[in-house]
Amino acid sequence: MVQSPDIVIVGAGATGLSFAWRLAKQRPDLKILVLERGGHIDQRQGPSLSDDWELALQREFHANPNIRRNSADYPVDETATPIKPAFFNAVGGSTIRWGAHFPRFRPSDFKVHSLDGVAADWPVSYKTLVPYMDINDSIMGVSGLAGDPGNPPRAERPHPPLGSCAGSLRLAKAANRLGWHWWPADAAINSTDAEPGRDGCNNCGPCGMGCPRHARASADIAYLARAQEAGVTLSTHNVVRKIITKGGAATGVETINSDGRTEEISCKELVLAGNAISTNILLTTMSNWENPLLGKGLMLHPTAIVTGFFAEDLKSYSGPFATSIISQEFYETDPKRKFLRGFQLQALRGQGPLSTALGGYGQRLNWGGGHASAFANAFGKSMSLTVTCEDLPEPENRIEVDTKRQDQFGMPIAKMCYRLGANTRQIRDYGVERASEWLRTAGAERLTVTPLSVQAGFHIMGTATMGSEARSSVTGHDGRVHGIDNLTVIDASVFVTASPVNPTSTLQALALRAADLMGRRLAQT
Amino acid sequence: MPDETIIAVLDCLIPGDATGWPAAGQHGLVPRLHELLELLSADGPAQLQTVLSHLPEDFLTLPTDQQTISLQTVESTAPDAFDTVLKACYSAYYTDPGIRRIIEQKTGYEARPPQPLGYEMEPFDESLLEPVRARGPIWRKVP
Ligand code: SF4
């Protein structure tokens, strides 16, 4: 382990590793240490190479840490939320477990208050983040197509779009008949063999359990080697359980390793790069600091799923499950609708035999008489649409940290307190109608509707919101915590609004920018 | 509880049909069920015992429709235990090599894992996007 690091980064996920790489490139003189509570996942030997591959989704690759219970996982109290937590603790973080859908937030997402009179504007603009999004795209390895009229003009994607399946073709033609926007999904997946060390996608399907070809990006694959080459040190199986403060500054962290040994590590700058839950827990361990806004304004991406079943055998188990096509027809506020903001429709492909029977992201097949024919009518013949709703930050939705309860690492336990707000419910209901319309137009003979996907708390945003003014935010535009100048938060807890699209592209751009700002600031001291 | 009862339970959950799908119990999945109950759930074996303890004593001798009604009752009175057993049953069935061969025969989905071979897909056809492009930008400009 590096002695007396200048910078300690907590978490080796999407933001921690990208931040570490960027800062090390800018400032090779700094000693940078990344502490990760989990270990390495060898994706080359991933479950999709074994006959029992589908079982992994119920066990070590389950999205919910309370069910998965790997050794690095910590419990989250989920009794007060209908949407359960979903994140992964390992080098690579939740990008180990993701579908790699990689859209960008739109310009309007950063100006919600100015445009719609709700929530707040970000202290950072879309334009500021674009150069960082481009850098990040080139490192993660993004497939897609420039020229999407749903988004501002952008650079050519590093890889051409992924292939098409019969189901996505049906949906594309149906969207054209409806006159709706659609576009091939941006995917943090290499569609070609162009990048040394990473093969192009071979359409195996279950990206959510790691990619043996390293076609699908994850933070470990994309950033770790680069960061280490730039001088960054990574320490795994090292749980940070306390922030040590002195006189209004963070002076270091207390850690516990897998042998139960505790250690204090001092640093000049501390960076929290886990998720909103771990950041809330860690911020409450600081003595002499509080902010009444911490924990408030939790935003998720409440998701309804409509599944269409077709007579044709679509072989919908083939192809990356989450990165087919999307529609952003209903993304922006439309005064003719009853709600503010909007939603994205994202096509999901079918799944393997077991996940089809268990319902996957849809509904479980009935047991008893008729089960066999239900399977025959579903397997390979379904396409689903997610209705991914933009949540507004509401104070009732929050993360509470209970300092009286402790987990196996001696840390307080966080509770997600969340309910669907009225605006979100209206978005969801309207979105389900539109998703059903799209699938019927595509020729679906039968639909099932899952009004709220339960194991889908993947995007945990807000609760340590960034802002221009200390009285209305927890961090500044660079993620630095108000009142603790050398403590920076770069995970999605700083998000001001949620947009209706996956956050990782925007999140990593913010992290790269925060690294540049820190590098410059430290050069002046 | 003897294996015959568990076989009968599995046969009720996945009865198969005349088109060539075997019933789960008759297919010999009881040992795999036990294995998966251990593997997939901290209290899987206990949950199976809960399900079995809720069945009527004459379950084995009941006609199939009555057995199904008994299990529906268990599903509503002991939902967590029933859910655990059902998941393990589906998991045993759909990961079984014999069932996977039947799926291959019926659908063409090869009885192999997704990797390393993957699947073929058609290249993306950009011409489909012509109407979308023709409509022009739909994103909202900001001040
Ligand atoms: S579908 Fe492609 S990107 Fe996803 S795991 Fe398979 S090979 Fe990797």
Polypeptide structure, described:
The complex is a heterodimer of chains A (525) and B (143). Chain A has helices spanning 14-26, 65-68, 112-116, 126-140, 166-178, 219-229, 276-284, 353-358, 371-378, 422-441, 504-523, and strands spanning 7-10, 32-35, 76-80, 183-184, 233-235, 238-246, 249-257, 262-266, 269-272, 303-309, 325-327, 343-348, 382-389, 398-406, 412-417, 446-450, 487-489. By secondary structure, chain A is α/β, with parallel strands linked by helices. Chain B is mostly helical and 143 residues long. Helices cover 55% and strands 0% of the residues of chain B. Chain B is elongated, with a radius of gyration of 23 Å. Chain B starts with a helix and ends in an 8-residue tail after the last helix. At the A-B interface, helix 5, strand 4, helix 8 and helix 9 of A face helix 2, helix 5, helix 6 and helix 7 of B. Bound molecules: iron/sulfur cluster. Iron/sulfur cluster binds next to loops of chain A. Residues 189, 201-205, 207, 211, 213, 215-216, 320 of chain A line the site of iron/sulfur cluster (SF4).
